[in-house]
Amino acid sequence: MTHVLVTGAASGIGRAIAADFAARADCAVTAVDIDRDGLATAPGSPVTADLAEPGAPQQVLEHAWRRAPVDVLVNAAGIYPSLDMLDVDAERWDRVFALNVRAPVLATTAFANLAIAAGRGGAVVNISSGAALRSRPGGGAYASSKAALEMATRAAALEFGPHGIRVNAVSPGFVAVGSECNPVAEDYAAAVSVNPLGRPGEPADVARAVRWLAGPESSWITGEIVRVDGGSNAGAAHLPRLWPPRDLEQEGRGR
């Protein structure tokens, strides 16, 4: 039986990940979130915790480990408040980084220490974002936190690899999750959903990628950031051409 711990499991992408693993007969899921009511209907064994508290990630891992050694850790908890850079203050900046960076780093460290002490390997999958590569107005703190998380993913992969612990990340494009922290208007969703595949993402799209990265099919993959974004990272297909198409043969003769 594979024991999977998923943070942020009460809603959105985290909930879809927990459900995807829980649907497999060979998986037992520990679902972690600050939202007690959401956890009540989420798949898995619920653990309520505020992972932004410094000691919470380690406490959660130790609690879950007592149930059974954890094989897979998925760090999906995160917040995306709309926060202009002109309005940044220490409290709000620190809250974003505490949950989006420090919590997954401390959870991964706790997981690795427990696994190494038990002589076991394992897999960690962090949930990043396309914002790690490009910010937008109001998203500077969030984008900065996800960029930091991607580097922490690579650093952990480098150091934990010799112990048989793989660390990767999935970077979703726009996925509508009904966030209460930062509700998304329809016109905004339409604007950021433009991609070569022509549709916004669904939580299940991300969940399937996470399960693959955590499984044996990806056993020689670590330190990678897998973009699950409908091709958004490939370029801006919706922008106009810089110039009209030309006859390349004619253009070549003029040189």
Feature tags:
single chain; 255 residues; alpha/beta; 7-stranded parallel beta sheet; 15% strand
Outline of the structure:
40% of the residues lie in helices and 15% in strands.
Number of strands: 7
Based on Cα principal axes, name the global outline.
Answer: globular
Fraction of residues in H or I helices: 40-55%
Q: What is the averaged pLDDT score?
A: 91
Number of helical stretches of at least 4 residues = 8
Low-confidence segments: none
List the strand order in the largest sheet.
3-2-1-4-5-6-7
Describe the structure.
The chain starts with a strand and ends with a helix. Strands 3-2-1-4-5-6-7 form a seven-stranded parallel beta sheet, sandwiched between helices. α1 (12-22) crosses α7, α3 (56-67) runs parallel beside α4 (90-117) and α4 (90-117) runs parallel beside α5 (140-160). The radius of gyration is 20 Å and the shape is globular. α4 links the parallel β4 (72-75) and β5 (122-127). The model has no long low-confidence stretch (mean pLDDT 91). It has eight helices and seven strands; from the N terminus they run βαβαβαβαβαβααβα. The longest helix is centred in the middle third of the chain and has 28 residues, at 90-117. With 255 residues, the protein is an alpha/beta fold. It has helices at 12-22, 36-40, 56-67, 90-117, 140-160, 186-192, 203-214, 248-253; strands spanning 2-7, 27-33, 45-48, 72-75, 122-127, 165-172, 225-228.
Topology (elements, then pairings):
Elements lengths: L1 E6 L4 H11 L4 E7 L2 H5 L4 E4 L7 H12 L4 E4 L14 H28 L4 E6 L12 H21 L4 E8 L13 H7 L10 H12 L10 E4 L19 H6 L2
